[in-house]
Amino acid sequence: RVATVNGNGTADLVIVANRLPVDRVTEADGTPGWRKSPGGLVTALEPVMRSNDGAWIGWPGSTDEEMEPFVDEGLSLIPMTLSPAEIEEHYEGFSNGTLWPLYHDVVAKPAFHREWWDSYVTVNERFAAKAAQVAAKGATVWVQDYQMQLVPAMLRELRPDLRIGFFLHIPFPPAELFQQLPWRRQILEGLLGADIVGFQLAGGAANFVRLVRQRVGHKTHRDTIYLPDGRTVRAAAFPISIDFTEFEELARSESVSQRAKQIREALGDPETVLLGIDRLDYTKGITPRIRAYSELVRDGHFDVEDTVFIQVATPSRERVDQYRALRDDIDRLVGRINGDLGKIGRPAISYMHSSYPRHEMAALYRAADMMVVTPYRDGMNLVAKEYVACRYENDGALVLSEFAGAAEELRQAWQVNPYDINGMKATILDAARAEPKEVTRRMRAMRKQVRENDVSQWAIRFLDALASVPHDHGKTVRP
Ligand code: F6P
């Protein structure tokens, strides 16, 4: 698997992301190995980059071993080391203790620490310097997500010849919340180093343009920002997606069908299976969802003899306090619900704190009559789209939070407000009792939407927009 990347300064397409698409792990026998990284970003970008022979700069996960660049199935991977202090301050601290809650509607309280900010700057500088080193003349560099928001401006300073794109995978908050950030101006200026700043939704792009006008004082017109040096920056929505065909093919495979059957058998062949799959994160609304379902069981609308709720929570950011506390809360809640409502061999909630490969995920999607996705706030939520892609028989009900980015595209889902437990209960019941014809009508429409807007469309749209940026970065085009 390991080969050295040929020299520096040769890559025409470079991704800069906090994580590499693979994580360094220690196998059970103590030997080092690699595993696919968690999260939507990698799921979306990996297929695109493999087919473009790109270079990918990122952190290989929680190790401080220095690693050489290597090539993995046509993709040059350039590992960046984070020291233990940087993992604590840049990754767990500023990225996931400050920006993550701030950008998700402050559903948890963001912490503001000056040392965390300093570390964020240092790490962004190092990633920008590496991109400047590996990018060929006139190359395209695509910077990803909230952990890397200073890279565009730092990189432009080092390499004005590059086309630089930035895409934010998580929500971009309203000005009223963003303004809490002591370093708000630096973040806005960091992003303005890009030619195109991409967001999941038009609302995020509008929030950004408004903040740039108010806080930095640049002239703006619709989605365009006019910088004093004559350069222009475009802010636009590029809703991310999944590899629809890959998921559908996987779902249709004999082994996934078998596994889906096995899963239902292992649960005692219930009539109805409901499913939730999330990273274990306080933005995902796992608690109100489980509470809503348990009340439906308690009130006699569902019976544990013939219905089960499978909840998979993928371990995530386990050293961050709020994530630890959430895990304990969910353990306790599920334990209490199963203690109160379960029967022998029939838990109300079948709970797994574990991450599964794609094959098992597809089998779970195939096994579930209803998928319940209820984040308080989510940039997109690819799990909802994966469920849709796997339901090739046009059956299966999707209950979806109106605060997930995906709700703008998946209009035919049964939409819910996760803060409204009674509303959620009523909608879950509606979805469970819907006529098969109604379920099919909705699923068919959603499948068309995701099929026609898959991840390759997303990447093509973004990269085409970037390719059409003039070489002078818009300096000659004035309003
Ligand atoms: O897709 C959003 C995202 O935050 C990515 O940026 C991130 O890589 C992924 O979720 C998983 O989180 P983490 O990298 O912190 O494990």
Automatic annotation (TrEMBL):
<dbReference type="GO" id="GO:0005992">
    <property type="term" value="P:trehalose biosynthetic process"/>
</dbReference>
<dbReference type="GO" id="GO:0003825">
    <property type="term" value="F:alpha,alpha-trehalose-phosphate synthase (UDP-forming) activity"/>
</dbReference>
<dbReference type="GO" id="GO:0004805">
    <property type="term" value="F:trehalose-phosphatase activity"/>
</dbReference>
<dbReference type="Pfam" id="PF00982">
    <property type="entry name" value="Glyco_transf_20"/>
</dbReference>
<comment type="similarity">
    <text>Belongs to the glycosyltransferase 20 family.</text>
</comment>
<dbReference type="InterPro" id="IPR001830">
    <property type="entry name" value="Glyco_trans_20"/>
</dbReference>
<dbReference type="GO" id="GO:0005829">
    <property type="term" value="C:cytosol"/>
</dbReference>
<protein>
    <submittedName>
        <fullName>Trehalose-6-phosphate synthase</fullName>
    </submittedName>
</protein>
